[in-house]
Amino acid sequence: MQTEKVRVRFAPSPTGPLHLGGVRTALFNYLFARQHKGTFVLRIEDTDKQRYVPGAEKYIIDALNWCGIVPDEGVAPNGNMVSLATERHPFAPYRQSERKHLYREYAQQLIDQGDAYYAFDTPEELDLYRKEAESRGDTFIYNHAFRNKTANSLNMSAQETGRRLMENDNWVIRFKIPENKTIEMTDLIRGEVTMESDTLDDKVLWKANDGLPTYHLANIVDDHLMEITHVIRGEEWLSSLPLHYLLYEAFEWQDYRPQFAHLPLLLKPDGKGKLSKRDGDRLGFPVFPLEWTGTGGDRSKGYREEGYYPEAFVNLLALLGWNPGTEQELFSMEELIRSFSLERVTKSGARFNPEKARWFNQQYLRNRSDARLVQDFIPILQSKGIKTTPLQAEKVVSLIKNRATFVNDFWDLSHYFFVPPRSFDLTQQKKHWKEETPAIVLRAKEILAACTPFNVPSIDKTLHDWIEQSQLKTGQVMNALRLCIVGEPQGPGMADIMAVIGKEDTLERLDHALKTL
RNA sequence: GGCCAGUUCGUCUAACGGUUAGGACUCAAGAUUUUCAUUCUUGCAAUAAGGGUUCGAUUCCCCUACUGGCUACCA
User: Fold this and answer.
1) Hey, what's the torsion of the CAs at A66, A69, A72, A78, to 10 degrees?
2) Burial classification of residue A10, based on how many CB atoms lie within 10 Å of its CB (0-12 exposed, 13-18 middle, 19 or more buried)
3) CA–CA distances in Å: residue A31 to residues A151, A339, A396, A398, A515
4) What is the model's pLDDT at position A284?
5) CA A351 – C1' B61 distance (Å)?
6) Are the C-beta atoms of residues A395 and A374 closer than 8 Å to each other?
7) Pick the catalytic residue: A100, A181, A274, A277?
8) I need a surface site. Which of A416, A428, A477, A488 has the fewest CB within 10 A?
9) For residues A211 and A100, is the Cβ–Cβ distance under 8 A?
């Protein structure tokens, strides 16, 4: 089993944008495949016409791309159709809607074997049964007891069945769950799981009204046809595992059955339940990798647009439900591939923590070279109409980067380097603009005017010599200068700031402040 | 309601029978500093409750509680 080539798949449904949990599932599949030198397949499960959302498939591909989770095989990264099998995509097509012709024969096989049957209940009838059972305090299960007393191909003649099918009566194909059987399953994360077949419903395998298989059938058939060796998916599928096991048995594929791993769910940061789209809006953090505009024009924030680095995003996702067993928290994709293991995936759901997410980005931002940060900063400066040199911008970046979480923070942290303060912080004025201050600033101006070269060590020395001689306090001088030059109580050392803005600008700002304050 | 899974600081988690129960985020305090931030130090803070098993339980078993998932002709 271990010697065979690993093939995993990520099989999202294009019913909307991929959210955090989906990306994480894709990531874990990707890491697992890479680690085992296997293949990561992207398959699109679009068997639900009602819930299909145009653009969702493209979104999924774009999002994975942004994260660097690029499929080896499957629906192409550029969104192009891969309908014909090629060397790289031997099992094409990878979109279930394009594979619909394949599934019918498998459904038929199950019927011929007696493992599935045509059922003719209407949705209304079933609704009624359910309500009835509920009012009695019972649980409605569509199992052997129930199927014996309703209209289906199991208890009517072939002619009658044929007639009803011809009349296009309301029919579906249901799987015939075996009676009184204990299903023993293995999950790579949870270990042994057992379930009694009598608690299971005869699930619908084929929907007559749109002529498509349901998830369960399509999924099992495709996983088999595509030679998937490991199914790594969300915990919400754990309760379908017995059905899937039974299907593998019915097809006599149990020897090729993939191994299963059910990932813990991502939960809301507060309150109850799993993370949903609305939580992002409510709590003010994105739940989607990329910004998404719904059909109604409603916009949902994306990590990319918030200014997250994809590397940081992937890193924080990887540590949700998995840990390396060491104290390392920062991982490149390569390191993740090396360290990942399903054995170290947690069993319990993980609450998403937006604070920690920001911390990850901050770490990545700090580790990024000034030269690279400048590339992202320059467009922002341009959009503000600032003219500067890359050298100057890089100097600024190096001074303020450790205060930022995102490149988007840079402007707020550095505008005073480029634009003289328009106003002066009031509380700072109260604290640092005393009776004697104008005289000090005036003198500082003279001293700075004589300071050459106008660089950090020289400014520092000049200022400190003067402060020492005149018996002033460092804070007295520096805070006053800061008020004049920055306007706010923030920023790097004054010598650093003055060196960047230059002598001329420095003196002008002092002049202006003396007049205004 | 039924079935399944889960439960260690507020959050993410480590400890696979023997630790003062560790780390990270957050928060608080202190140090450094011309401000803010950084950095450093310190602190607050957890084994859901109860029974077993064992010389010894976070760890194994049972039970209760709680949490989550599923319970569609959705995936």
Assistant:
1) -20
2) buried
3) 48, 9, 38, 34, 63
4) 81
5) 30
6) no
7) A277
8) A488
9) yes
The ipTM value here is 0.96
Whether A2 shows a pLDDT value over 80: the answer reads: no
pLDDT of A76 reads 72
How far is it, in rounded angstroms, from Cα A30 to Cα A41? 9
- In strand B, the nucleotides that come within 7 Å of a protein beta carbon are 1-8, 10-15, 22-26, 33-38, 67-75
A19 pLDDT band, cuts 50/70/90, is: very high
- Which nucleotide minimizes the distance between its C1' and the CA of A320? B12
Domains of chain A by residue range: 7-94+265-351, 98-263, 369-418, 426-516
State the nucleotide closest to A123 in CA–C1' terms.
B73
pLDDT tens for A155-195 read 999 999 999 999 877 899 999 999 999 999 999 999 999 99
Q: What pTM was computed for the model?
A: 0.95
Q: What is the CATH number of domain A369-418?
A: 1.10.8
Q: What is the DSSP letter of A177?
A: P
pLDDT digits (tens, 9 = 90+) for A336-353: 999 999 999 999 999 999
Contact A409, A382 (CB under 8 A): no
User: What CATH number does the domain located at A426-516 have?
Assistant: 1.10.10.350
Decide: A76 and A93 in contact? Cβ < 8 Å.
no
Which fold, A98-263?
A: Glutamyl-tRNA Synthetase; domain 3 (3.90.800)
User: Which tens digits make up the pLDDT trace of A256-270?
Assistant: 999 999 999 999 887
CA-based R_g, chain A, Å: 32
pLDDT in tens, A35-64: 999 999 999 999 999 999 999 999 999 999
Supply the CATH classification number for the domain A7-94+265-351: 3.40.50.620
Residue A277 is among the residues annotated as catalytic for this protein: yes
Residue A178 structure tokens: 């075996």
Task: For residue A259, list its beta bridge partners.
Answer: A230
Residue type, A231: V
